[in-house]
Amino acid sequence: MPLHLTKIAFGAESPATLRAWLESHADEARASTRYMPRRFEELKGGSLYWIHSSQIVGRSPIWGFEETGQGRFWIRLAPRLVAVRAVPKRPHQGWRYLEEKDAPPDIGSGEAGDLDAMPPALLGELSKLGLL
Questions:
Q1: Are strands 82-88 and 55-67 parallel, antiparallel or unpaired?
Q2: Sign, Cα dihedral of 37, 21, 10, 73
Q3: Any residues with CB less than 8 A from the CB of 130 and at least 6 apart, and which?
Q4: Which residue from 57, 68, 63 is spatially nearest to 9, judged by alpha carbons?
Q5: Comparing 55 with 108, which gets the higher pLDDT?
Q6: Each residue's pLDDT tens digit, 30-72
Q7: Which of 78, 100, 119, 130 is the most buried (most CB within 10 A)?
Q8: Nearest-angstrom CA–CA distance, 55 and 108
Q9: According to the model, what pLDDT value does residue 42 have?
Q10: Is it the case that residue 25 has pLDDT exceeding 70?
Q11: 40 in helix, strand or coil?
Q12: Within 10 Å of residue 50's Cβ, how many Cβ atoms?
């Protein structure tokens, strides 16, 4: 079972803007980090789960890691955002490991468009009530 990471979608106004940014940066979709994860071998086949408005809203498959040459690392990502069932997640700095058993499931493609249009606060409340 692969290991995953969680990271804040800093600067994204919504999951839809995060998706648009990832798709528009197909050659260079990546997130920056100061430290290389010690468990990077376990991250093969894993994903970076994005946190927006205190909930996990989507994931991008991890392709690998690369040094920037400035003492930092790039987390190389597939240029897409896979919609997942929104689950509450406290914000944090940097990234955190996420075990496969704790990762939210993907949602169907028909559901994703409708959920992107909802305000994040409403998504969070519906998720807390078990309605999503």
A1: antiparallel
A2: positive
A3: none
A4: 57
A5: 55
A6: 888 888 999 989 998 999 999 998 999 999 999 999 888 888 8
A7: 78
A8: 18
A9: 93
A10: yes
A11: helix
A12: 28
Residues 3 and 19: their CA atoms lie apart, in Å, by 22
Domain ranges, residue 86: 4-128
Domain count, the chain: 1
Report the CATH number that the domain containing residue 9 is assigned in CATH. Answer: 2.30.130
pLDDT value of residue 30: 83
CA distances from 118 to 16, 53, 115 (A): 10, 12, 5
Contact 107, 84 (CB under 8 A): yes
Q: What separation in angstroms does the CA of 44 have from each of 80, 88, 102, 104?
A: 17, 25, 17, 18
Q: Transcribe 43-98 into DSSP letters.
A: GTT-EEEEEETTEEEEEEEEEEEEE-SSS-EEEEE-S--EEEEEEE----SSEEEE
CB atoms within 10 A of CB 25: 12
Mean pLDDT of 73-101: 92
